[in-house]
Automatic annotation (TrEMBL):
Residues 73-92 are annotated as: Disordered. Pfam families: DUF3616. It comes from the Bacteria. This is DUF3616 domain-containing protein. Residues 83-92 have a biased composition (Polar residues). Residues 385-512 form the DUF3616 domain. It comes from Myxococcus llanfairpwllgwyngyllgogerychwyrndrobwllllantysiliogogogochensis. NCBIfam families: DNRLRE_dom.
Length: 568
């Protein structure tokens, strides 16, 4: 598999990149920075809003809505042509009164490389229900004219009647509708809902729409369907989005990003900006990619996560789900093996607005993630060997254990990524399980932010050539997890970029070997919606500048760099 599909064009600021015979990317570090802006920088297009409603929008001939009711009482009946949709629960249990509403919209009018900022569903309620009905993403294909309580279409049954089995729908709530009176209601989809719409835009084949359901309700809810005669009363999906992409079809150029040496973690903000966290402070920065420039926004979140600016949270990676950015610290001791509570942070930032007026709001924080991880009672599928290993490498009751420094034998989290299931994947640089890197799934990240005990799914060992994880991110464009591997200790390499399906039964595939600039390491991978070009950030804190490590010089002189890699 090739790592770079097309050559870089123009000057790369911090490095000159060459292809080796087996796909190795090799930089030659320069001693000075190029102060000019790089090519391929393009302003982000203005935010746009597109609505999808049969006979109304985006054009009057739009007919891309699919909707139907599925009914337990008449389990083989199709209601795809009805003018109403209804939802109700099975109360009392066994009464056979369950009804669910299925809705989907063709959103192909939005470019596949667009960045979805928000999404909402507007419906007309003809029979009220003062109870909460939830929206979930459907994951099995269904046909409007054939779907029933028992069948998704004439060729396949639901895994469980009512589209309620494995592979039928996700379990994550995307939004809630409560209608105490008749009339028009708009449901703003939450971060997971926005992420679902992003998947529909980026990967149309994944668009199976939504199901509105609550099997415990006893009050029937009725909505107008897409077949209803009054067009304005039909279900409407509204998506706010921004264009993304690189002009000319070229791989974006590298940049030099000033104010910190550490590209420890990051995530996309929009098509031309990314957010950076670092392991030396709690300052969050937003940069314009492919430029030599200072941050367009810097925000110290120390106080918001319960720390002082002199503390060190050792922030390592970021996972984006909709407009929420989850951030993890290393959950590691310091280099002397001393416990520092500041380094055991997990929190989230909610993103709103557009650059440069974008806002970042801390949405909750936790300091007990690792402690919860060490208790088998908090796992759905506990792996006793892994839990024993993590306990031995943590020893949280002991203030100082020199041998448990993070780059010796101690725990060290450096990866965090979202999975399509709604779980987060936590990646460990250290320890490894034998020679395999360790990933653990966190099933309730939002609940953790509000004080709940963390719940974990399973431990997944990954063969990354004997290396640990240095960064990770789910890519919608690739429908795969992108992984950065590197030494678990102080070694200077090797490093590599991998692609993995996210399925525990499949093995990662190496994309390309990476050779970092001297005294630096690739530590963050950032995919962008609708793009196969992937950004890799370098942690350059140990790079020598006039004989002094970068992290020890004045912040005005600090910088780090990146490289873009095309991944097929």
């Amino acid at each position: 598999m090739r790592g770079l599909k097309r050559p870089f064009i123009g000057v790369l600021v911090a490095s000159s990149w060459l292809l080796g015979g087996c796909g190795e990317v090799e930089p030659a570090l320069r001693d000075t920075e190029l102060e000019a802006s790089l090519p391929f920088t393009q302003p982000l297009a203005a935010t746009q809003s597109t609505s999808f409603q049969d006979g109304v929008a985006p054009t009057t001939d739009y007919a891309g809505t699919r909707d139907a009711m599925i009914e337990e009482e008449d389990s083989d009946a199709n209601h795809g042509s009805d003018t109403k949709l209804s939802a109700s629960g099975d109360t009392p249990a066994g009464s056979g009164n369950e009804n669910f509403a299925l809705l989907a919209w063709d959103v192909s009018a939005i470019p596949a490389n667009a960045v979805v900022r928000s999404a909402s569903l507007t419906v007309t309620v003809s029979d009220k229900a003062d109870q909460d009905y939830q929206l979930y993403a459907l994951t099995r294909g269904w046909t409007e004219s054939q779907v029933t309580w028992e069948q998704a279409d004439n060729n396949q049954d639901w895994a469980s009647n009512g589209a309620d089995g494995t592979g039928d729908r996700d379990s994550t709530v995307l939004g809630t509708l409560r209608a105490p009176a008749t009339g028009t209601y708009t449901v703003a989809l939450n971060a997971q809902g926005v992420a679902a719409v992003q998947r529909w835009v980026s990967t149309p084949a994944s668009n199976q729409g939504l199901i509105l359901a609550n099997k415990d309700n006893d009050n029937r809810l009725e909505l107008r369907s897409s077949e209803y005669s009054t067009k304005a009363s039909r279900p409407r999906l509204t998506v706010t989005w921004e264009a993304s992409g690189t002009p000319g079809g070229e791989v974006p150029a590298s940049g030099t990003f000033k104010g910190t040496c550490d590209g420890s973690g990051g995530a996309w903000v929009d098509g031309t900006h990314f957010l950076n966290v670092n392991d030396e402070s709690q300052s969050v920065r937003i940069y314009t990619r492919s430029q030599s420039a200072t941050a367009v926004k810097t925000q110290d979140v120390s106080a918001a996560i319960g720390l002082s600016s002199s503390d060190e949270a050792d922030l390592e990676d970021v996972a984006r789900v909709g407009n929420r950015l989850y951030v993890t610290g290393s959950h590691a001791r310091n280099k002397d093996g001393e416990l520092e509570s500041s380094r055991y942070k997990f929190f989230a930032l909610d993103v709103a607005g557009t650059v440069p007026s974008v806002t970042l709001q801390v949405a909750g924080t936790s300091s007990t993630l690792l402690r919860d991880l060490l208790d088998a009672a908090n796992w759905d599928a506990p792996d006793s060997a892994v839990i024993t290993l993590l306990n031995a490498r943590s020893r949280l009751a002991e203030p100082t254990v020199a041998s448990l420094a993070p780059k010796l034998n101690g725990t060290n989290v450096e990866g965090l990524a979202a999975l399509p299931s709604g779980e987060l994947a936590i990646g460990f640089r250290n320890p490894r399980v034998g020679s395999s890197a360790l990933v653990v799934t966190l099933t309730n990240p939002d609940a953790v932010l509000t004080g709940a005990t963390a719940r974990f799914g399973r431990a997944i060992p990954l063969n990354l050539g004997g290396q640990g994880l240095r960064g990770m991110a789910w890519s919608e464009a690739h429908q795969a997890m992108l992984l950065l591997s590197g030494p678990h200790d102080e070694s200077s390499g090797p490093f590599a970029l991998w692609k993995w399906s996210g399925d525990a039964s499949s093995a990662p595939v190496k994309v390309v070997d990476l050779t970092a600039p001297e005294n630096s390491a690739p530590e963050a991978v950032i995919p962008y919606p609708g793009s196969l070009d992937v950004q890799v950030l370098f942690d350059m804190g140990s790079r020598l500048m006039g004989g002094t490590e970068c992290k020890d010089v004045a912040s005005s002189s600090q910088s780090f760099s990146d490289v873009f890699v095309h991944v097929d």
